[in-house]
Amino acid sequence: MRLKLFILSLIMMPLLSMQAQNNLTITGKVVDKSGQPISYATVTIKEGATVITGSITDDSGDFEVKGLAPKNYNVEIQFIGYKPYNGKADLTSGQKSLSMNKITLADEATQLEGVEVVAERSTIEQKIDRKVINVGRDLTTAGATASEIMNNIPSVNVDQDGKISLRGNQNVRVLVDGRPTNMDPAQLLKQIPSTSIKKIELITNPSAKYNPEGMSGIINIVLHKNSNNGFNGSLNSGITFAKEPKFNNSLDMNYRTGKVNFFGNAGSNFGRYHNEGFIQRFDNNSQQKLKMLNDNESYLYKIGMDYYIDDNNTISFYTNQNSMNGKGNVDTDIRYLNGDLPNVLQLGRYNTDNNSGAYNLAYKHKFAKEGHTLDFEGNYNDYDQTQKANFNTTTFTNPADQVIYNDKIVDKRKTTTLNLDYVNPLSEKSTLELGAEARVTRTSNDYTTGNLLVPVGSRSSNYTYDIDIYSAYATFGQKFEKFSYQLGARFESYKVQANLNVNNSKVAFDDDYITVYPSAYFTYNLSEKNMFQLSYSRRVDRPSLEQTKPIREFATPLVTGLGNQELQPQFTNSVELNYTRILTKGSITGGVYYRLINDEISRVLYSDETTDNPNDLIMSWANFDNNSAYGFELSANYKIAKWWDVQPSIDFSSISQKGLVSVLRPGTIDQFDFVRKEIDAAAFNARLNSNFKATKNLSFLLFGFFRSGVDGIQNNSKDMYKIDMGGRYSILNNKMNFSVRFNDVFNMMEYGFDSKNPYPSTGVFRWESQSLYFGINYMFGGGKNRALQRKYREDNTKQGGGMF
């Protein structure tokens, strides 16, 4: 027996020694040039040209590779949008581990005489809690406005009226530089020149440190802000040819000397936009034709200053200013083919002026410990809009009856927000985050009309909608070898007070409650290149001014848009499972989600009981019963060859809706019942960006888009699809670029729908989807970058409005 043990020990000792020698470790931290960690970068360990093993960086940019033998290795680190890193690691000196400390990856941008150039190609980064689209100078982002490039982004859709949706749902927060603007998102996107955008962030399941608004998440538009040494800038100009030409321009500049950096960005967008629509009603055999013309002129500028007090303290100020003047014509021609009713022609003329200003002051302190920070931020936003409308309605009786009157609406909104955030890495594996916020919003809406059909005492009104929100949050996270988690909760006090003053009477509505919004994130690295994440959050969508004010928002001879003062907030519980796969030539990201929605806010259409005409309809908002939704999305970045890369993406969403719809009572022409209706609405979207590099200076793009039809409580929409193509040429060592893009080559994009309630009808709306865009970009200046890192936050108001 002793002999056997002795022989076994002789055999095992070399094996144990070999195992100990083959358990050496390489560690390090991967950051960008500003010192921010790069998550999910690929770390490859090679012996010569042979790949031995590898890993990926975690949320903090750290990596650890174990099980190595005492040899010399080559270390390669890669991440999309950055230049590859190549280094050496010597494990032959007898140490058990080797730390490579901080490894800085350089941007993939071309360096010209010290100029930090914007990335040539747009890239997508999948981070722990968001998807970041870095907007480059490629043809993917060629267009006049932010609204025109949004449909190129995975999971994002913009409809014919400019309404934006994320994962098939319009309950999404839209921010500029992480801050609310008090402006309707559809209008905002049409006013921001596409060349003023640096990146777009999609946060589909935000944690407790974010405000809980938006069922489908947050879309944050980050504008350019330079902080390079010396004087730097870029000039962009573009023209879009459709029925009439449209122009967009932007100038981005900064000047930095010593501890002070001045920066600014200015953009303009103007042109005439044509739209048309057709609606056929089968119950009375009527046809309604709409022709719309909008002559818009908008300007956006951002100016600010950073003062670097020392390496640990920075103070910053900036202001965003946005102004727009628009003239709109809406001609509605209604014809009754049976001759039972007289034909109607309404000429609507709208003149709209709006101005929005945001003023932001921020202070950041870095403690001695890395990652230990304190941030204070104050923000004030002021928005004013005046709309004057003239309606000329002719009813072709014998003799013809003509009604002419004017409307005027004045909107004013002011929001003050104060934030305090504290981050403390308690240890190498755990982090505590605390924060508090106060938000005060004051809005007013004055309405006057010259319509003689409205009672004298009701021809003017004032509607106020005031909100006070006070909140505090806490999150705690830990990370282990392959597993990490973050738990959090946000406590919020919400109070709203609405008052309608009309005809010497006052109608008030109040709501006051305290709510807790929990969140949880769990991440597991199955292997070096495979990561799973499970997350949960509770969110809320509160009715906005547009959705609650019982005042005319728009009007046609048959449809009037009004708000619903009794709307209740909707709450959503959301669960997501996401997967990231790092490939040699790219990456794949995918995810599935499920939402449970209480008291969903949605559009309703019903008969106007205040008139004698049974054809008059009211379009408003209402709370539906508890609904549910689920879906998935899949996107990829892949470089097929040195000259060819593709970005395919697909997403699917399904929502179960229950609600009351207005249905014509059988055997009657003017009596309606509210009937309970249940549907399962499914939507599918597919996109494919394909980039071809013909020469060093010449590249081409081919883009395809498909959106499936979607069934709804009121309307069923039809399929939509288009194909775009374009080219780009660079000169002057890539300092100047020329772009051309042909959108909707086959002129196929249109919005079509069918409806059964409250009347059987069908319709189609078209806009100038087919267009030809020419753009030029020129960059100048030089120096290295150093920017103040800000926390991005979102508004807490559900947006809505518009006819469709």
Residue share in helix: under 10%
Fraction in beta strands = over 45%
- How many β strands by DSSP? 45
The number of helical segments is: 4
Secondary structural class: mainly beta
Structure description:
With 804 residues, the chain is mainly beta. It is built from four helices and 45 strands. A hairpin with a 5-residue loop joins β24 and β25 (430-449). The chain is globular. The N and C termini lie far apart (88 Å). Residues 1-20, 109-120 and 783-804 have low confidence and may be disordered.
Keywords, separated by commas or semicolons:
5-stranded mixed beta sheet, 4% helix, 45 strands, 804 residues, 4 helices, mainly beta
Give a brief rundown of this model.
The protein is mainly beta and about 800 residues long.
Topology:
Blueprint: H1 2-21, E1 24-31, E2 42-47, E3 50-56, E4 62-68, E5 72-78, E6 85-90, E7 97-104, E8 111-112, E9 115-116, E10 123-126, E11 131-134, H2 146-150, E12 156-158, E13 164-166, E14 172-176, H3 185-191, E15 197-203, E16 217-223, E17 230-241, E18 246-257, E19 260-281, E20 286-310, E21 313-336, E22 344-366, E23 373-395, E24 401-424, E25 430-449, E26 460-479, E27 483-502, E28 505-527, E29 530-541, H4 545-548, E30 554-555, E31 559-561, E32 570-583, E33 586-598, E34 601-607, E35 617-623, E36 627-641, E37 644-664, E38 672-693, E39 698-707, E40 715-717, E41 720-731, E42 736-743, E43 751-755, E44 761-767, E45 771-781
